[in-house]
Specification:
mainly alpha, disordered N terminus
Length: 543
């Protein structure tokens, strides 16, 4: 005992231990490395360019057609070829990324997208342009779903609202700004430069993806296990569907033997595709995800969003061109007010989601978007660019508030192994909604113009005193400018007929805006049925 006491007394004070570092407040699963953010940013640049190229040629089609010696109807295939190829590749992208690895598949298609963009600028005839545009769409279509998938699989649930907000910029801002960029570039440098425009951001995208995406081994054995019957029926069915939607109104729908054949092919092969996917154990697209209440309802909202999003980008430029005589650059200056406000609003959405239920935010955004359409429902010949400023600003705010929280609702609680199917299906639904919307609106405007023309013609009967007085007034005006009496009377009647058709078309465009508002109202009803998503939202970390 004495010995022990002696040892204790001579030992001196106990050594002071260094304080133990406290664990980080942020759980490791919520930490995102700079390299992972670079991968997300690089993928988003690609998605932005792919979506931008859907719309960027629309404001320049007249110049491209003239340069290639194509007619108006032939020139529409410049856009159709891109859309057909894109809609076919979107559902396949997740599986092919698994086969070849995300890094290899994305980098190869990003390079091909830039190559085919440059080749589009060198096209000297329509067939060559159509081939290059199809190949550009086939490679560019890969960039859209993979950017969505990378967000879901790279970022933890707490950071996914930020990533999905970046994706919203590609999906809603790019279509809005496309006519502006296309019009300005075409008027300033020539239409070829709308394709060369992809090269600089494309090289930045390649640099980011090359540095950030992890290397993975290929799984070529999956090719033997591939859902080839689903791929073949999907490719044929969706291609035929897209052609019918894009070309139907110009070819008089089922009055055209070509459209009738395409419609039969679309129905047969799309039905076969759906049946195959529902019975396959490992389908290309897992349509069973639509049975999940939130994903299914969010997909319905996504279709209505596609109808209004792409429909409005189609309808307003056509109205300004046809009814107001605007050129591409003037149209772009009107459309820019749909795009610019979104740059300021969309980055704020993740913060708003911390305090506001995602369902409320989507519902409010859809309401604003619908309100902007209803504001354009009572068009008159006096409605030109300045009159669209307020509706466009309202629409910009509405669009900015919808897609990011809608994506959060759709993907909340999804296991990460479903991210590929969810990405392909969700993006395909929006693009199909856009194609359906444009086809519906173009046909609707034609039919409503005929309806209004009949009513306007009844109101301006040549037997009415007001019409006779107007004919006499115009005839005297033309006589004073040197026309003979017969020519003056014929021109007076022609001017009145042109004014009647102009008024009928204006009312038809107003009706089309009302139709888009009604479609968005359906989306608002669907979002009201959604269950409250888990706090934080996003795909589950479960594997």
């Amino acid at each position: 005992m004495a010995a022990l006491q002696s040892i204790a007394l001579n030992a001196g004070p106990a050594p002071v231990r260094a304080p133990v570092a406290k664990p980080a407040l942020v759980p490791p699963s919520d930490a995102v490395t700079p390299r992972e953010w670079l991968a997300v940013f690089g993928a988003m640049i690609g998605a932005f360019m792919a979506v931008l190229n859907i719309q960027i040629t629309n404001s320049s089609l007249a110049e491209i057609q003239g340069s290639l010696g194509a007619t108006l109807d032939e020139g529409t295939w410049i856009s159709t070829a891109y859309l057909v190829a894109e809609i076919v590749v979107i559902p396949m992208s997740a599986w092919l990324a698994q086969v070849f690895s995300v890094r290899r598949y994305l980098l190869v298609n990003a390079v091909l997208f830039l190559v085919f963009s440059a080749l589009c600028a060198t096209a000297t005839d329509l067939p060559t342009m159509i081939v290059f545009r199809a190949l550009q769409g086939f490679s560019g279509g890969v960039l859209i779903p993979l950017s969505f998938m990378i967000t879901l699989t790279t970022l933890p649930a707490s950071k996914q609202p930020t990533g999905l907000s970046l994706f919203a910029l590609t999906a809603t801002f790019a279509p809005a700004i496309g006519p502006t960029i296309g019009g300005w570039v075409t008027d300033t440098y020539g239409w070829q430069y709308i394709f060369y425009l992809n090269l600089v951001p494309g090289l930045i995208m390649l640099g980011l993806l090359w540095a950030a995406l992890p290397k993975r081994t290929m799984q070529l054995g999956l090719l033997r296990q591939g859902d080839w019957s689903g791929i073949i029926t999907m490719a044929i069915g969706l291609s035929a569907t897209e052609i019918v939607l894009e070309e139907g109104n110009r070819d008089d729908w089922f009055g055209s033997a070509f459209i009738l054949r395409m419609s039969v092919i679309a129905v047969v092969f799309t039905t076969a595709f759906l049946v195959i996917e529902l019975v396959k154990k490992k389908p290309l697209i897992n349509f069973r995800l639509l049975a999940r209440r939130n994903f299914g309802l969010a997909s319905i909202v996504n279709v209505t969003l596609g109808v209004a999003l792409y429909g409005s980008v189609y309808l307003l430029p056509v109205y300004l061109s046809q009814m107001q005589g605007y050129d591409a650059q003037q149209i772009g200056m009107v459309m820019i007010w749909v795009g610019l406000p979104q740059l300021a609003i969309i980055p704020l959405v993740p913060r708003i989601l911390k305090y506001v239920d995602a369902r409320v935010l989507v519902g409010f955004g859809l309401t604003l978007f619908a309100a902007s359409c209803f504001m354009n429902g009572d068009l008159s010949h006096a409605n030109s660019g300045p009159q669209f400023l307020i509706p466009n600003l309202v629409r910009a705010v509405g669009q900015a508030l919808v897609l990011s929280p809608l994506s959060t609702i759709a993907t909340a609680g999804l296991a990460r192994e479903h991210a590929g199917s969810a990405s392909g299906l969700f993006n395909m639904m929006r693009n199909l909604g856009g194609s359906f919307g444009i086809a519906l609106l173009s046909t609707f405007v034609t039919k409503r113009e005929q309806f209004h023309s009949n009513h306007v013609v009844e109101a301006i009967s040549s037997y009415s005193a007001a019409t006779q007085a107007r004919i006499e007034q115009l005839t005297n005006l033309l006589l004073s400018r040197g026309a003979d009496i017969d020519l003056a009377q014929r021109k007076a009647v022609a001017l009145i007929d042109a004014a009647a058709r102009r008024e009928a078309f204006t009312m038809a465009y107003g009706d089309a805006f009302l139709l888009m508002g009604a479609a968005l109202a359906i989306g608002a009803i669907a979002i009201a049925l959604v269950k409250k998503p888990p706090i934080g939202g996003g795909a589950s970390d479960a594997h």
